[in-house]
Design brief:
With about 130 residues, the chain is mainly α. It folds into 2 domains: about 70 residues, Winged helix-like DNA-binding domain superfamily/Winged helix DNA-binding domain (Arc Repressor Mutant, subunit A); about 50 residues, no CATH class. Helix content is about 55%, strand content about 5%. A two-stranded antiparallel sheet has the order 1-2. α1 crosses α3.
């Protein structure tokens, strides 16, 4: 079953506009601060922190390199290394959920990383 990507809205574009001024982990923002900045740019209370997380998911689904970890906050990737840190964080978070499901259902968890062939390291083409 193929799921259609949501269309990007004004909220998505405002979030991207703010994030493009925060490139690199050193300039990351907490969810609270990023929400506040987006609402300031909008001139009104436009999004909540909860909605921010949904908007980020949508942007990532469209291929935007929106990074975030608890240590760095939200920012745009400055390089492949930062992007891979976020990809590893998201992968590990997803695996944690799958392990919980497997335990609750009392089934074994196969090595999904190998089966899904998700590259978490740069390919030779990407490093050259």
């Amino acid at each position: 079953m193929t799921k259609t990507l949501p269309s990007l809205t004004r909220k998505h574009h405002l979030l991207l506009a703010v994030l493009t001024r925060h490139v690199g982990a050193a300039s990351g923002l907490s969810a609270c601060d990023l929400t506040r900045k987006v609402n300031h740019v909008a001139g009104q209370i436009l999004i909540s922190e909860r909605e921010l997380r949904h908007l980020v998911t949508d942007l990532r689904s469209h291929g935007h390199h929106v990074c975030a970890t608890p240590e760095s906050g939200y920012h745009m990737a400055a390089d492949e290394g930062e992007l891979l840190i976020t990809c590893r964080f998201l992968f590990d978070r997803g695996m944690t959920g799958l392990r919980q499901v497997a335990a609750m259902r009392r089934v074994s968890l196969p090595d999904l990383a190998g089966q899904l062939r998700i590259p978490l390291e740069p390919t030779p083409e990407e490093t050259s």
